[in-house]
Amino acid sequence: xxxxxxxxxxxxxxxxxxxxxxxxxxxxxxxxxxxxxxxxxxxxxxxxxxxxxxxxxxxxxxxxxxxxxxxxxxxxxxxxxxxxxxxxxxxxxxxxxxxxxxxxxxxxxxxxxxxxxxxxxxxxxxxxxxxxxxxxxxxxxxxxxxxxxxxxxxxxxxxxxxxxxxxxxxxxxxxxxxxxxxxxxxxxxxxxxxxxxxxxxxxxxxxxxxxxxxxxxxxxxxxxxxxxxxxxxxxxxxxxxxxxxxxxxxxxxxxxxxxxxxxxxxxxxxxxxxxxxxxxxxxxxxxxxxxxxxxxxxxxxxxxxxxxxxxxxxxxxxxxxxxxxxxxxxxxxxxxxxxxxxxxxxxxxxxxxxxxxxxxxxxxxxxxxxxxxxxxxxxxxxxxxxxxxxxxxxxxxxxxxxxxxx
Amino acid sequence: xxxxxxxxxxxxxxxxxxxxxxxxxxxxxxxxxxxxxxxxxxxxxxxxxxxxxxxxxxxxxxxxxxxxxxxxxxxxxxxxxxxxxxxxxxxxxxxxxxxxxxxxxxxxxxxxxxxxxxxxxxxxxxxxxxxxxxxxxxxxxxxxxxxxxxxxxxxxxxxxxxxxxxxxxxxxxxxxxxxxxxxxxxxxxxxxxxxxxxxxxxxxxxxxxxxxxxxxxxxxxxxxxxxxxxxxxxxxxxxxxxxxxxxxxxxxxxxxxxxxxxxxxxxxxxxxxxxxxxxxxxxxxxxxxxxxxxxxxxxxxxxxxxxxxxxxxxxxxxxxxxxxxxxxxxxxxxxxxxxxxxxxxxx
Amino acid sequence: xxxxxxxxxxxxxxxxxxxxxxxxxxxxxxxxxxxxxxxxxxxxxxxxxxxxxxxxxxxxxxxxxxxxxxxxxxxxxxxxxxxxxxxxxxxxxxxxxxxxxxxxxxxxxxxxxxxxxxxxxxxxxxxxxxxxxxxxxxxxxxxxxxxxxxxxxxxxxxxxxxxxxxxxxxxxxxxxxxxxxxxxxxxxxxxxxxxxxxxxxxxxxxxxxxxxxxxxxxxxxxxxxxxxxxxxxxxxxxxxxxxxxxxxxxxxxxxxxxxxxxxxxxxxxxxxxxxxxxxxxxxxxxxxxx
Lengths: 406, 347, 290
Description:
The structure holds three protein chains of three kinds.
Chain A: H1 7-12, H2 14-26, E1 40-47, H3 57-72, E2 80-87, H4 92-105, E3 110-112, H5 117-130, E4 134-135, H6 160-174, E5 180-185, H7 188-201, H8 205-208, E6 209-215, H9 223-231, E7 236-240, H10 243-255, E8 261-264, H11 271-278, H12 280-283, E9 287-290, H13 304-316, H14 326-344, H15 350-357, E10 387-392, E11 397-404
Parallel strand pairs in A: 1-2, 1-3, 3-4, 5-6, 5-7, 7-8, 8-9
Antiparallel strand pairs in A: 9-10, 10-11
Chain B: H1 2-11, H2 24-39, H3 46-71, H4 80-97, H5 101-123, H6 128-147, H7 152-155, E1 161-162, H8 176-200, H9 202-212, H10 214-219, H11 224-250, E2 252-253, H12 260-273, H13 280-298, H14 303-317, H15 321-346
Antiparallel strand pairs in B: 1-2
Helix pairs in contact in B: 3-8, 3-11, 3-12, 3-13, 4-5, 4-11, 5-11, 8-9, 8-11, 9-11, 12-13, 12-15, 13-14
Chain C: H1 2-32, H2 39-55, H3 60-83, H4 92-114, E1 129-130, E2 135-136, H5 137-159, H6 161-171, H7 173-178, H8 183-209, H9 217-230, H10 235-256, H11 262-276
Antiparallel strand pairs in C: 1-2
């Protein structure tokens, strides 16, 4: 395993190794970097708890509740987790400030799950210069797998681009003559999907895509865009919108009698949160890609994962409704972190954390779909790469086709 | 609107001037403050130094608002746009042309001066709420404009621009955070001195006269239109320079950094600090920097609600801002001193 | 041509949302001479109260009227406790800051109490679609309710002694005091009415955009633009302005600049119109005595 470390990764961590070697020469305390001790492991985290993106705040709450559970069960290898989560209001400058606070003042061992593509871009260079792990970031941009340039940064969820490619492959195979209309959010997330989709269609892209319309998060509705998409004559609708706008779009299309084949991005695949508000009738036949289990889906209700998750929700998140998909996401991503820390054992250095994060083999994470596993290596910084296509039948998702990706 | 602003200014004691003998003390106080500011980064951590750099940067931005809204009576709900313009000017110059970072700051200031002046010209026709709407429109449109695909090549579109860390100047024995702190401090002191000279002199009297008695000012031969547009330009220049410094400090610009909330924060930061003063900009910047941390410490569940309560409470206790409050307290103290000194003199 | 008509119709139905909010903005302006930035959040909060009442089992109309009553009281209470200390100081900017404070508090509290996931808010109107599905039954209903509110506001301020007293108190507090109008009480009443109208607007808007804590943030900006475009002191102008903003924005997006710049261009056009008519399309030009 060690021999397969790429040259540049090796080069990138020379300083850390040297530091380690010096420290080993000194004392046994070498097993710890700042933020770790015999008693505790300090984990830093940023998330928008205020401002227009506060809806994501529940991810932070879910992760905090997960560590609470871990601590109640005795911690990891006898150490308690101290989880320090700070508010960045989804503003990149604020993220820089808060992450510096975590690293320099709170002296955390690592920074886990900072949320947002711009926020993570803002801190990426700092983290890599400081050689502090920036692990399992909460964004689906493609750039988080760049192990050569940024060996201290790793993503987690399937990238937006690879997801978009899955839809493109599906269309090429089953509807090669489709006319596609796209609605996308005018930011990095929307553009990533657009880019991946075009790439997936290849030279057929310009012929198949008949209309691309954007919306801003400040738009009250996307009605106008849907009317325009219908008028374009598209028979496939690729819906790259966040939950509120995705639901509005599905409902409006239904209202004006537009009945295209609907492709819905995973961001808004939630049944309780999107499809029900849009109207189950209107959402029937929607195709999405999934990697997490939807808690509103009755097929999982006897599932062991689901029961355990539900028990955790009731005990550690009392009063929270089960509708919010962020609690599933937070639970699963925290489990992955938990596994890395377990693997790291007593060698709680930042370098070893990265080594273990890049050494997850076929890890089964609760609430991931059957067949979707976490895999990483020193040359593979994309933990979840597989997704499954699913069609909504008016009540639940029916998985179809094979697992896409590795 | 204008008349209302006037009475606030009077309440804040703006025109009051200290007697010559008493003016020595503020000068000594200022020198002591400056000395403390120079020593500060050697006693605190790099992270704190970074935070105080942001305070200095915000103080410059708020001073821009104070000049425009406080002294000249033109409201702006869109100064985030000029902040963004300054930040992007610096980022593009460094990223595309390799211009040294210190040189980009005056360029960003000049660009914003011109942009602000040009925006100020049509805005002359708008007053009060209508000016508020025009500036609000500017602030709301900013992120969308930054993302526009026609200029994506330069702005990096939705991805923004990552800037490299500035080189060390003159081989000073300072770490990067301290360098940036002193760089920002120097610019801030220069800009504050400039503002003081402008506002205390003929120009200052003219722009205050336009705020308080627009018609009388016209009658006295003050070219209101020119002064108002120029004030807009100067104000935009201050905020733009702040944006440029912030871009250098944070090393990243992206449309998400300049949402409309930023323009609101500038306005209430100014009001909290004391919009009819120069020193208020510094108080306001301290508020914007540290009160959110305080709110977050109180409640993780709803930090924004706590912050909102702080805003309201500050206005309750100090309706003329912190600077107004400080002035009130020191005026009372001076009065008491004089009252105490009188009998002694007589005896 | 058909597509054009469709864009106009969708624009009108979105414009209906802006118009109802613009009306609320004008209402509080006429009653207090402030533009309340927290008005959108107050409406949002009222809508959550209605949602909660229905979740507790109240029928729609019961919840509807109870919410209006609660919002009226809420408006009065906010005025009495938070705004009143600033009444005599003429501190416009301090009041604006307090408005922003209220906005932040309500927005954050709503998310804390009811979570951020979107909620379906029911409509009292038949679900069927009209004009080939371009306008839903609810959107027609919203139009009707907006016009009814407009008529009520118009009649109230024009013909009732209370309405006239409120206008007087807002426009010239000193003279009003001299003729025996209790200015402070009028202001509180104005806040109460604005709260009630905001609640109606919120409950009419929520079925279209879904209920969530940020639902009014951008709508308020558009409503504000509509109100000023029409003339801030003219309820008819405000409603017309709201519709105009909706249609303008849609046509810009569909035919002129594309969706990624439509907001910018629509706002630029509004500001452009105001440069030519600085008091709005239907506003009174204020002549001041020197």
